[in-house]
Every structure is written in structure tokens, then in C-alpha cells.
Amino acid sequence: MSGGTVAEPVRDPGLQPERTRLAWRRTTLSGAAAAVLGMKTALHGGVSVAGTVACALCFALWLAFLLLAHRRIRALASTAEPAALTPRHATATALLTVALAVCAAALVF
Amino acid sequence: MHVIEFVRNVRLWFAPQQIRQEGGTPDYRFSLANERTFLAWLRTALALIGGGFAVDQFLPDLRWGWRVGLALALLAAGVLCSLRAVNHWVRCERAMRRGEDLPVSRFPAVLSLVVAVVAVAMVVVVLVGWEG
To answer: What is the count of structural domains for chain A?
Structure first.
């Protein structure tokens, strides 16, 4: 652990930060797929006010997810040995997923 | 028992400093591996939610009850899966800080069984319920 100089940070041979970054990307992509399905459901059978609101909500949830992922990816890239994910960050991402499911349940009914 | 433990953990979700006070900071690679596992569970949850939407959208000829029932079952599984993902992540993070064994869980087995049951139900419904 004597490496990590300012000029040339030691690169993790297991590429753990990179793998974690890609995991965030994959998860954002999965979220996009779910959100697009939600927007399709919302606008199915003609445009209505409720449908448009639900569609916007799905998109907003995905945008929030993208923002959280972006912040975490920036944190991962900033140092050679990034700090662990904070519980608040993890909870926020999980709650966004739950919100999407609640939105879905409202749409299905 | 499990419920009490779960409620106790919920407080930890929002209180990073409480976790940080316990034990020592583990190797950052272990924390990142834990984070990736959490994200993998979150993807599973998103896939279940997407499946709920898909049942609603792509099986329009089903009877209303079956369609909504299947979709809601998948959505509920997605909600459970994502809440469990944070909870398990917190438990693993805490166990690593304390130097304890990682927590074991019955959830993967339960989820597999639920997915299997839903899949069988979908096969039955698609074979039997078209004219419904």
C-alpha cells in the first residue's frame, strides 16, 4: 500500500472500480428498459392527462437514477481507492426502483 | 424475529455515520464487490418490474384478473427484491466492518421458487386462458 503517488496512481489489477462503474451503467440501462416499458404502458390506448403524467413520472424516476449513477461513477473515478457506497445513496437507488414499481402498479390497474 | 431485525436495519439505511463508527474499514475492493452485488440485485428487481409491465402490455387477450394478478405478483417481487437488496448490502457492509461472517439468506431460494411458480402460471394461462 505504499503506491498511490500523485503522479501515477496504482491501478487495481482486478479493475474493481471499472467493474463497479460498468455495473452502475448496466443497472441504469435496465432501469431505462423498465422505464420505457412503463412509458409505453402509460401512453397505451391514446394520450390522456393521467397517462402523460405517469409517463413523465417514469422518465423523471429514470433521470433521478441516472443522476445517482453519474455521481457514484464520478466518485469511483476520482481516487485510486474509492470510498464505499453510502447507505443513503444505496437506499435512494432502491427507493427509486420501488417508486417505479408503485407507478407500474398504478398503471396496470 | 426477522421483521424486528429488518426494522433495526432500516435505520442504518439512512445513517451512514452509524455504520462508519463500527469496526474497521474493510479493503475497498470488498466494499466494491458488495456494491456490485447490490446493483445485480437491483437489476433483478428492475427486470421483475419490467416483466410486470410486459405481462400487462403483451398479453392483452388474457382475462383481466389473471393479467393484473400476474403483473402485480411480478411487481411485488420487484419491490421486495430491491428492498432486500439494500438490507442485505447494509448487513454485509456491517459484517465486513466487524470482521464477522457474511450473512446468509434464504431470499435467493424463495425468489427462485416464486419466479418458477409465476413462469408455470404464465404457461398455464397462455395455454388455457387465450379465449378467456
So the answer is: 1
Does ipTM top 0.95?
A: no
Residue B66 is given by DSSP the state H
CB pair distance less than 8 Å for B47 and A30: yes
Kindly give the parts of chain B with pLDDT less than 70. 1-2, 16-21, 129-132
Q: Considering the domain boundaries, does residue A92 fall inside one?
A: yes
Dig out the grid coordinates for B28 from the structure.
475497498
- Residue A24 with chain B: CB contacts under 8 Å: 39
Nearest to A81 among B15, B16, B28 (CB): B28
pLDDT averaged over chain B? 84
Q: Residue B78: what are its φ and ψ, rounded to 5°?
A: -65, -45
